[in-house]
Structures are given as C-alpha cells and as structure tokens.
From TrEMBL:
SUPFAM superfamilies: Nucleic acid-binding proteins. Transmembrane segments: none annotated. CDD domains: CSP_CDS. This is Cold shock protein. It comes from Serpentinimonas raichei. One of its GO terms (cellular component) is cytosol. Pfam families: CSD (PF00313). Residues 1-62 form the CSD domain. GO terms for molecular function: nucleic acid binding. It comes from the Bacteria. Residues 43-79 are annotated as: Disordered. InterPro entries: CFI_box_CTERM_dom (IPR049886), CSD (IPR011129), CSP_DNA-bd (IPR002059), NA-bd_OB-fold (IPR012340).
Length: 189
C-alpha cells in the first residue's frame, strides 16, 4: 500500500500517513525501514494493519521525497528557542557516543534533554520504546492542552531526574511501575 506522510515528528517519534484510499494510518519510529526518516509530504509504501485505536502502518519505506521546500509547504521545521526566542535547528550534543541533549546554536540554551531524566525512559530502558512513545503522545495530546495538564508536566520534569536515577538502580520497583505505565501506554498506543 502507498500513501503520503501527513505529519511526522522525529522528536515525538510518531506520525500519520494518508493512504491512497484516504484512510489515515498511525505509525511510530520503529515502523520505519531504513536509515532515513520521512518528512511531511513524502510518498511512502507500508503494510496496513489494525492498531488499538484504528489503522496502523508498519514496514514504512520512503518511495519518493517531497520536492517542495519546507517553506512552500507552509510548515517551518525549525524550533523556537525558549531562551533567546530565535528560530533554529537544534544541535545534538553527545556524551560517550549517546545523544545527551540538543541546544540552540545561537545562545547555547538546552532545547531538549535526552538523558535519563524521564521516568518512563528509565523504566523501559529505551527512549524509543513503543510504550515511551505512547506516553509522550498522552503528554502531548491529553495533558498539554489543559492548564492542569501543563502544570502536571512542569512538576513531572522537576521531580523526574532524581526519581529516574533511583529507579534505574531498583529493578524490582521499576518493574512494578512499568506495569502501571503499561496500562496507560496501551490506551494511548
């Protein structure tokens, strides 16, 4: 089956494809074949299946890259730095061969921290685990739109680094928390 990438976020690890028959298919970063990630407007081939919340694409391969530059497609792929307010493409900083964080090339402010500061990442042991991706979707689609949700997210980011470090050294406790998070991840997967 073929379709066009409607939206894909490398940062969030998931996206949507509109198939030639008009149906929208969810896919995540683990469903992508090859080293290149798709961009909005790319033509892809994929296998269609049924996910928990509707059509799901797997074995996603890029057939043709979109020829239109980002600005003419109407979307600017650059992020806005929360420190200096400039539009930028974050630069990745690695530590011992692993991505550590991304920073603004203008002011050096941290844009995103990829470390073990997220409880779900510490519990599952992989930033790109399907459950962690589902929990990021829960954060972005359910919590982020409301004031209470945004407050919860801010508190979570403040307390999560020490909790994540503690959990990484307590596998039995991490396994118990994983069971709780699995319920939430299944609902948003």
């Amino acid at each position: 089956m073929q379709g066009k990438v409607k939206w894909f976020s490398e940062e969030k690890g998931y996206g949507y494809i509109v198939a030639d028959d008009g149906k929208e298919h969810y896919f995540n970063i683990r469903d992508i074949q090859g080293a290149n990630l798709p961009r909005n407007g790319d033509i892809v081939s994929f296998e269609s299946g049924q996910g928990k919340k509707g059509p799901k694409a797997s074995s996603v391969s890029i057939v043709a890259k979109s020829q239109a530059p980002s600005s003419s497609r109407g979307n600017d792929d650059r992020a806005t730095c929360t420190h200096c307010g400039k539009k930028m493409v974050p630069r990745i900083i690695t530590y011992r061969g692993e991505p550590s964080k991304s920073v603004c090339p203008f002011c050096g402010g941290t844009y995103k921290d990829f470390g073990w500061c997220f409880i779900a990442t510490a519990v599952y042991g992989d930033y790109h685990a399907p459950e962690v991706i589902a929990l990021r979707r829960f954060r972005d689609e359910t919590l982020q739109p409301s004031l209470i949700g945004r407050t919860f997210i801010a508190i979570y980011y403040r307390v999560s680094p020490p909790v994540a470090r503690f959990l990484s050294s307590k596998p039995f406790l991490a396994a118990a928390i994983r069971k709780i998070l699995n319920v939430l991840a299944r609902y948003h997967g």
